Amino acid sequence: MIYLDNAATSYPKPQEVIEAINDCINRCGANPGRGTYSMAMNSARVLYSTRERLAKLFNVSDSKNIIFTANATLALNMAIKGVVKEGDHVITTMVEHNSVLRPLTWLKEHLNIEVTKVDCFNDGRLDIEMLRSSIKENTALIAVNHASNIIGGILPIDEISTIAKEKQIPILVDAAQTAGHHHRDVEKTEIDLLVFAGHKSLLGPQGTGGLYISPNIELEELIQGGTGSQSRDPQPRNRPERYEAGTPNTSGIAGLGAGIEVIMNEGLEAVRKREKALIDRLIDGLMAIPDITVYGPKPKEDRVPLVAVNLAGMTCHMLAHTLDKAFDISARGGLHCAPDAHKVMGTEETGTLRFSVGFFNTEKEIDDTIMAMEKIAKDSSVK
Ligand SMILES: Cc1ncc(COP(=O)(O)O)c(C=O)c1O
Fold this sequence. Notes:
This protein is 39% helix and 15% strand. It has 383 residues and is of the alpha/beta class. Helix 1 (15-27) packs antiparallel against helix 7 (250-266), helix 3 (72-83) runs parallel beside helix 4 (98-111) and helix 8 packs parallel to helix 11. It is globular and about 70 Å long.
């Protein structure tokens, strides 16, 4: 099987991740932060060490500002709903995932907020002048994707952050597609809120993700409940407890810690270069096939390792089905939870098929995929 859906979740997971999860379940089965006996302390150490690794990865000086969540979606909801108040104005972009779009739509309906979506070009570039001119007196948040999960282009976070700082507006970066792939120094860039998925390029298991909250932001917590450390009502205000009510996914977080270590031992830049070479190889191969349209940044330009395509005469769903059934290649067709990004690409009606490469893909798998696509494009009986 050739797995090319790493933008949804990475597969397979490194052996180190599997062993860390197994070891944690066997050795640290107690609740962290909720007792002082040895096993509870071991569990607490698991959380601490993964938090520290994340802090190193994003250059966060105090790891207490990193909050664990079940996925990027929950972290995005916490960030958006913790900042935005009734009647506020929010700026976002046309390449956001539903995990940003839908909370904003909910806030429009329930708290009467106003949302401006900044245009993007079909190669994924942001209309930065539109962003600048969209700022209003009551703009309470700029929420932007670091990289689109369907176009693949990288947004200019440094530039956006500078504009936001000039006007003292908090900036939220959705780094679901870039964490573990493109370096991001949150303190240097003065990012206020950064969301990551633990189960994509960071190689952790599903059910992991998180949120960095700058010490300058007093975010309202989305949920209240048991935090272990202080049991009197109301919810404590210290971090990370304030934002981590309920029993955490300790074994998943152990796996995430191991995944980050794998990436860091390999070197973030080395991983990025290898995956970029694979996606460029795939793009070159696909562009040479008649009837295939390839979307996104121009070949060789910076992008996350994914590419959206369409084949004339076949729906993206049928293409995904054929790749799976006839060639054992896993790739996803549809709108990929980013309907606006498809408006940008002109594929709102058709959707696209998305290939996304990851840590374990090889050149041979890329070449086999190109051959499969050639065959499908040529052979009407496969179509
Ligand atoms: C850009 C972006 N944001 C948010 C998400 C949501 O991530 P999760 O599935 O971890 O909630 C995804 C998932 O694909 C994504 O690509």
